[in-house]
Amino acid sequence: MLAGTALLAAALTACGGGSDGGSGGSGSGDAKDKPAMAVSVNLTGDQVKAGEPVKVTIADGKLAQVKVTDGKGGELPGRIAADGKSWTSERNASPGTDYKVEAQNSDSQSATAQFKTSPADKVNKVSINIPKGSTVGVAMPVSLVFDNPVKNKAEVEKQLKVTASNGTEGSWGWFKDYSGKDRVDWRPKDYWKSGTDVKVEMNLNGVDSGTGGGLFARDYNTEFKIGKDRRMEVSLDTKKMSVTEDGQVVKTIPISAGTPGGQKASWSGKMVLMAKEGTIRMDSQTVGLGDSYDKMVDYSMRLTWSGMYAHAAPWNNANFGSANTSSGCVGMSDANAKSFYDMVQTGDAFEVVGKGSKGNAELGNGYGEWNLSWDEWKAKSALAGGAAQNG
Prior knowledge:
Layout: E1 6-10, H1 27-33, E2 37-41, E3 53-58, E4 63-70, E5 78-80, E6 86-92, E7 98-105, E8 110-116, E9 123-124, E10 126-128, E11 134-136, E12 142-146, H2 153-157, E13 160-164, E14 170-176, E15 182-188, E16 197-202, E17 215-216, E18 220-226, E19 230-235, E20 240-245, E21 248-254, E22 269-272, E23 275-283, E24 294-302, E25 309-312, E26 330-332, H3 334-343, E27 349-353, H4 374-378
Parallel strand pairs: 9-17, 11-18, 19-27, 25-26
Antiparallel strand pairs: 1-2, 2-3, 3-6, 4-7, 5-6, 7-8, 10-12, 12-15, 13-16, 14-15, 16-18, 19-20, 20-21, 22-27, 23-24, 24-25
């Protein structure tokens, strides 16, 4: 932390007085007799280390107003202490930024100072799963993946805020993404209600990730809407997938899921339709299944990062509704896949039940948080008494 202070001194007249002590009103003479206003700022110079709050302290008297702005006109929010002797910013100074401090005391005297923070040695960045303006399904969590490690999980989490139009209850939870990177998701207690408007604010500019992570150099935000309440259930026993909308079954599709008894079995449990990827190349070598397949597959809808999809599988037509013989995905006819693909949206709930699966996928392999109880999920917050801060 930087020691050192900048002395701000300015002898200015009271509001009603002229600088020459002329006919500016009864306060002008008094103002000239008052000592200059003197305040100190904890950050000084042109190579200030970012990542800490700005603190302004007055030597005598009381602060009435303090304004700290950056070179783009953005204001650093803060508050004056109850005794009027100091002002502290609510957020940290950002890296690579020019700041101007303007202070005024209760006698209407003012003083200014400037300082500049040095660029961050290392910058951390965030990838957000929901683009601004999107409409998503009722199971979609807010998911943030960080470029660099986040050791200061609690400090980062304090700067994350989710606001729902209907006050939806939820919690952040930390764990490792399938990529191995640190990740934090916000999951509602129960599935979202259709029609909910959601706003996410990530006030991370100037926050320190901790050792090996670097500083964040910007804020992030997104907003989205919850669409139709649509849920899918695949039964490995009946070899059928039911689609419900607003609680009513609207479609039942014969399917063939993963071959039981090995790596080609399907994952089970609660998942989320992560993305509609259309026609993609599926190569078994990329998922550790040797030379089992290498083909272009239509109407592909991702369910896990490790490669479980729902998709068209016309080569397996004889087994739809009667046998699970795929390499782990949920296959269906071209016609059913097309109508299903056209119907669904990212974020829809997708659950696989019945015998013959290889269990639930790991938490970070897609959006696996719905397989945890609400209490289990809340315990993964870095602010939940320190339990699971390391994910």
